[in-house]
Amino acid sequence: MVDKVVLVNTLEQGLDYLHIGAADQNLGLVTIVEALHTQGYRDVELFPDKPYEVTPNGIVEENSFRESLVRSVGDAKNVVFGVSTTTDEYYKFLFVTKVVRELFPNATIVAGGPHFAREVLIDSKGNRYKDPIEIALQEQLADAVVVGHAQPFVDFVVKHDGKLSEVKSPGFYYMSEGKIRGRGKGKYPKVSQLPYVKPYNRLIRTLIHDGCANGCDYCSINKGSFNIAPEIVISTLERVIKEQEIRFLDLSDSNPFKPETFKFYQEIFGYLDGNDATRTIKSSLIDPSLVVDPKQSEELMMFLLRHLFLTCFFGRECITGEVASKIGAKLRGKPKSQEQLDKEREGLRDFISFISQFLEGIIKYETLRGSVCISYIFTPFETEQSVVDTIKEMEMFHKMSSTQLTVDPIFTVLSPYPGTRIRAKYIDHIVDPEDFVKLGVRSNVWSYDLGASVVFLDEALDVLEKLREDYSTSQMIKELKLAAMRGFSGKVKKPKHRRERNFYL
Ligand code: SF4
How far apart are CA 421 and CA 415, in angstroms? Predict the structure, then answer.
């Protein structure tokens, strides 16, 4: 019998580079609480109330962290800790699990989250690299690892009373007799209400339907698709939005309005029409391929405006067919052609000008402003021309901003996350593939043998670092132009030693 489950959140500041603001809770862990409650298990606690700051040197206010953790566990004997992490937050995971081990040597630590994916990585010289599960189990950072969604964790606690060797559910991994046992990915658990992170400035974040058939090679959304029953989504949203006077609703769904699932959202938001949920300002990701066909795009725009989806996030990623084929930026499993990418650019332009005119002309309320965010990924496969053209495109979109609509391009640097195809494809060009502390969206782990583009990535990361100091988009574009000139000039010497990541999320 498990006396208590303590779920430890390592996500501290939100994901600002993706325009996902800070929240005190982690949606994955909230989902586990909901799933355990649904099974009648209630001795579960989210820890801490507000995430602690963790730097490369350790947990800030570590004594307070330790004291609160001891208080959370109380006098429970058989305790299971669930610790979730992304690759970007991995260094925090290491500090947190170390403290948990020291304080509670007899407790069971189960790791999970997007960082943990199985993979077979062998370079051209025949060197084999460990995956995150092997590292976590062999180095005893965790006693078990969940890959995929949380059903195996729920089974471990509820059905198997915390006995590792009894869990046969897919997605549950542990060590026995020196070998890693386990297979597959965990399913999304049964929940009786929609999990959401608790209101933060009258905003809630949730995920109601996930999965994307495009299959991009760099995509780390690898858990498998699921959806929550519409009646559960509707009843939770109706109640929470009304009771807690919610103003903003963030959907984290990876590709919500694709043809296969658009109807699902039309039904849900159509049903919520006319009550408090209608008046919440919503934000969502949108696949740029959905604004290419004028008829499809118009239907989508009318839906978005009707339901106040006023913050739209487009993953434009790259602008040339060549880069798309190198990084596997795909549409329905096939790399995007130049023709498709050009159509997406034009579709986005029409989308922005339509939304802008609509907001200018029809919505006269001062407070109702829209925002379109377009994200790009700079890769080690850029040429000077592709970078210059990308920056020009960013500038063109940003200039479409109006009094009612801001248009902000943002960028990241290609990161070969665990489990992604791009990692296996370019393993020979990744420095220290097992060093997950260095891997992340703000790091450049690409080898300089790929050319000047990798020097440019260093320069681009410096721009990202400066962005933390409250830069405007126009300044970012200006800085990027200089970064491109420096990166491709041949004058910046490749550093003898790779630059350490010197700033953290
Ligand atoms: S379109 Fe986006 S969500 Fe879909 S596979 Fe590509 S990167 Fe992932």
Answer: 11
